[in-house]
Structure formats: structure tokens, C-alpha cells
Amino acid sequence: MKVLVINAGSSSLKYQLYDMTDESVLASGRVERIGMDSSIVTHEPADKPEVKSVIEILEHTTAVRRVLDLLTDAKHGVISRIDEIHAVGHRVVHGGESFKQSALVTSDVKGEIRKLFDLAPLHNPAHMMGILAVEENLPEVPQVVVFDTAFHQTMPQQSYLYAIPMVLYRRHKVRRYGFHGTSHAYVSAQAAEFLNKPLNTLSMVSCHIGNGASCTAIKDGKSFDTSMGMTPLEGLMMGTRSGDLDPAVVPYVMNKEDLSVSEVNSMLNKHSGLQAISGLSSDMREITDAMNDGDKNAKLAFDMYTYRIRKYIGAYAAAMNGLDTIIFTAGVGENSVVLRKAVCEGLTFLGVELDEERNSERSKVTRRISTDNSRITVLVVPTNEELLIARDTYAIIRESSDYN
């Protein structure tokens, strides 16, 4: 079975085509600047040269059609006919309380996703455009939606409820949902496999550290708590997001600076975090370089960033009454030697012993970076959210009556 995985944004569309017989990627690519006459299409077929073009793509239906044309192109394609695509899997950011697992796309499912637009106004409408665009181009092909929030639906009430009037939860579903669920689910399973231990016997903290960042407490294979909240703004300090903040700061700053709701929302999401403290960049590589050159603001930003990661790991170790494994994943978590060292050096009270030689290795496979004597095993696990989406899509289609 071949599965096309799509991640649709408001002005972009990323894709990967998988052959599920061996889970190999046949092709990947992206369409950028959708809605403009100078859209950029990048197509990367396996074992063939990259293809890049600039053309007019005004909406998602045309973007999907262009992707299908490239996948079946005589020179640059990887399949002969469109009907070789057996299913399409979509990333959807917010599933609310409606979706505790991935789901086959139906009219009812689309209706539920639309009801959740208010919870993810920047993401879910764009994902719906991707779903509808595939329907237009591949009307007979089944589609599956895989939700960032689904993995966290196992959290107990004590973890996901906010200490505000319950009427706000009952009426408007104001609660912690958490995100990066596909990543946390994937790397925790990979870690258990690497350790050769049953996932349901382990207590882990998974640290997905990229431009967006979150920590998740995973107990017995299930999400027990997570740092992001009702939106991805809560929790860790991030590239441009503030993370945890006293709620009273918002009305105070609005009054002092005469800011609108939209302006303060933009400040907290796009002009805070590493960018704000360093005054330099939201990119950890640039922060690290500047810190090594003696930039005090970069050093402060780095220290604040790593401090919050340590704080969450310690809190989750207490919440789960123990900790077996710490996982670093995503762009920064997988690649920043200095960040992992800074975090682990502050966790010796838990029995963490970092092996600096292992930590300095560059690799694209799961590896241990703690010493053999470390009481807690520390791993670097490359994430692969697209593969998890493909796997869920494959499993659901195989189980559906339409496929059988």
C-alpha cells in the first residue's frame, strides 16, 4: 500500500509518499506561498535529483493537483498512475475532546473538525482545505486524520483542568490539550524498543525541543501531563513564544502599552522567547554561537531556555513518582550538544550521568547519551511524525470495510 501524507498550512502544503511494504519514502516535497502567482514547488523524489519550480498556485486544490502531477511525472515521478495511491493521511493540529485517536474521514468527522476551528484558528481551517483539496483530486481515495492532541487525551483531570470556574470547561472546553502528540508518541515507542523494555512499564519525559517546544510526562505508555496547554503558547520558553506567564501580565501590559488583544497575542506568540531575550534570533544555533562569542543576552536566553526544560523534567519526575528515561528529540533536541549537556548537568540529583563523548556524537539513529551507570537513561531519538501518520493511516485503512 502507498500512503500520501499531507500537512496543509494556510499558505503551504508539505507531503511525503510512503511505500508501506517497507515504510520507505518514495518522494517528499512542499508547496510554498499558496495564493500567489510566484508559488514555490519543491519535489524531492528518492534517488532522483530535486525539482524546483515557481508557478502560480492560487489555492490548495491546485497545489494538490501539482503534487500529483509531479508524483506521476514520466521523468521526475515515482509512481506510474495516481491510482497507485491507496490512502491519504493528514496532520490535524486540534482534535479537542472529540478525537482520542486517528479517524477515517467522513462527513461527520469533517463536521467535528469544523467545530474545533475556534480552538485552532490558524491550523484547523488550513487542514480542512487540504482534506477538501484531496477530495477534489482523489474522490475515491480514503483519507485519515491524525491529531496532534489525540495522544494527550489519556491525561487525568488533575493534569488537564485549569483552576478556573468549571462552567468555562463545560461551556467552552477550556482545558489543557497539549500538542506535538504524534512526536511524543513516536519517540516514546522508539525509546522502549531501543531499551528492549515494554512501553507500558516505563516512566519517561519526552522533550520535543524545536522552534516550538514541549515536554510530556509519559507513564506506562500514556500521556500523563504535558507542558503545552489549551494552545501551544503555554509551557517551555520557545523560539518566539513566551511559554509560562503570569496571566496578570497580559492586562497590565495592555493597559501600560495601549495594546489590543491581537497585538498582545502577537507579542506573546511571535515576538517573545529566545528572540525577545537575546535580541538576536529565535534560532538556537545562532544563540549558541553568540553565547560562545561572549554575548550576555544570548547567554541569558540560553540559560532561561534550558532552566525551564530542567524544571519541567524535575516536576514530571515528581508527578509520576519516578523516572526511567529522558528523551531529547526534534531539531534542537536532536542536534544541540550544548543544550543537552546544560539540561543534564542540572539533573544529577535524579541520578543523571551524562556521557560527554556519547553526547558529542552526530547520528541520525536512536542512541544513549548517558553513562552505563546512570540511574536514568538519557536518549536522543530522532522524531518522525510523518511516518507515524502514515502508519496510523495504513492501519485504519486496512481495518476499514472499504479496504477489505
Oligomer: single chain
Strand content: 15-25%
Mean pLDDT: 96
SSE string: EEEEEHEEHHEHHHEEEHHHHHEHHHEEH
Bulk shape: globular
**Radius of gyration in whole Å, from Cα?**
22 Å
- The class by helix and strand makeup works out as alpha/beta
* Number of E strands: 14
Q: Report the total helices.
A: 15
Share of residues in helices: 25-40%
Describe this structure in words.
The protein has helices at 60-71, 107-115, 124-137, 157-160, 166-172, 181-195, 249-257, 261-270, 273-278, 284-292, 296-319, 330-335, 337-345, 356-360, 385-399, and strands at 2-8, 12-19, 24-32, 36-45, 51-57, 87-92, 103-104, 143-147, 203-209, 213-219, 222-226, 325-329, 367-368, 377-380. With 404 residues, it is of the alpha/beta class. The strands form 2 sheets. Strands 5-4-3-2-1-6-8-7 form an 8-stranded mixed β-sheet, sandwiched between helices. The chain has a 6-stranded mixed β-sheet with strand order 11-10-9-12-14-13, with helices on both faces. Helix 1 crosses helix 3 (124-137). The longest helix has 24 residues, at 296-319. The two termini are 13 Å apart. The relative contact order is 0.11.
